[in-house]
Amino acid sequence: MPSPSIAQLQADWTDKPVTVVSTVSSHSARLARFVGKPGVVKTVNQNGRALVQFEGTEDIGWYDIDPADLRLRNEPSPGGS
Fold this sequence. Notes:
This protein is α+β, with helices and mostly antiparallel strands. It has two helices and five strands, in the order αβαββββ.
């Protein structure tokens, strides 16, 4: 099965509320601090990784995370977009 195109990943993930899955294995040390924290996917880069900004933190950086390590949240993000 071919992997989804970047445009399709962007359509599927951009502006979606997410959390990091607690069972991440490939980057568990790097992502452990984000498990359970709400975030929003700002876009998907050309490498197919989601750029996520986490909420409720003074850190305004965007973190590039494999979409396989993310779970969509059902509730909308506070503050919109």
